[in-house]
Design brief:
- The protein is about 25% helix and about 35% strand.
- It has five helices and nine strands.
- Helix 4 packs across helix 5.
- Belongs to the pyridoxamine 5'-phosphate oxidase family.
- Homodimer.
- Catalyzes the oxidation of either pyridoxine 5'-phosphate (PNP) or pyridoxamine 5'-phosphate (PMP) into pyridoxal 5'-phosphate (PLP).
- Pathway: Cofactor metabolism; pyridoxal 5'-phosphate salvage; pyridoxal 5'-phosphate from pyridoxine 5'-phosphate: step 1/1; Cofactor metabolism; pyridoxal 5'-phosphate salvage; pyridoxal 5'-phosphate from pyridoxamine 5'-phosphate: step 1/1.
């Protein structure tokens, strides 16, 4: 057994007070995201956990990268035929979470995922490096393969096939827009009395509440 009971940290860097909180959660998210970038200490500040309900009935979480956020929601890109893609097709309710330890902050987002337009997916796909485009074509994400050589051989074949050519985005790869109906902002505070502010979308307006830590 490994005893972790002495792992403790006092959170003292900031506070989340109602008078300083905008009425729109996207404004607060944008501010927090920019501040997390400025503070540093996180290699990929856009890394987020996405939790889905799998076809086996179990929740599953994994890290993906946020690529865009707008007043509509949060966009990431993946293989539609992957485990997460199949889960979303069956149950579009997902949860996103960001943790920025240097800022002592986290954001938890509940919402529905829907595919982005072909235009959005195409534009992002063609903005990726050539190797990343090949990877999207080569990998049938989440499928069982014999060994890594299967992927490496496929990449070598595709490098030859598409040398000097534009790669068409495969139909099984593209973006998801997560439209939130709840966003919670968590700010670490001393003595575990953390600040928690929850926004819930009700009748097209955001309702704001403070939650007990």
């Amino acid at each position: 057994m490994k005893d972790l009971s002495n792992y403790r940290k006092s959170y003292e860097k900031s506070e989340l007070i109602e008078g300083a909180i905008p009425d729109n959660p996207f404004e607060l998210f944008s501010t927090w995201f920019n501040e997390a970038e400025a503070i540093g200490g996180t290699e990929e500040v856009n890394a987020m956990t996405i939790a889905t309900i799998g076809q086996d009935g179990f929740p599953k979480s994994r890290i993906v990268l946020l690529k865009q956020f707008t007043s509509e929601g949060f966009i990431f890109f993946t293989n539609y035929e992957s485990e997460k893609g199949k889960s979303i097709a069956e149950n579009p309710n997902v949860c996103l979470s960001f943790f920025w330890p240097y800022a002592e902050r986290q954001v938890i987002i509940k919402g529905k995922a829907e595919k982005t337009s072909d235009q959005v997916s195409d534009e992002y796909f063609h903005s990726r490096p050539f190797g990343s485009q090949l990877g999207a074509v080569a990998s049938h994400q989440s499928e069982v393969i014999l060994n890594r050589e299967v992927l490496e051989n496929k990449i070598r074949t595709l490098e030859t096939e598409f040398s000097g050519k534009e790669i068409t985005r495969p139909s099984y790869w593209g973006g998801y827009l997560v439209k939130p109906h709840e966003i919670e902002f968590w700010q670490g505070r001393p003595n575990r009395l953390h600040d928690r502010i929850r926004f819930q979308l009700q009748d097209l307006a955001w309702k704001k509440d403070r939650l007990s830590s």
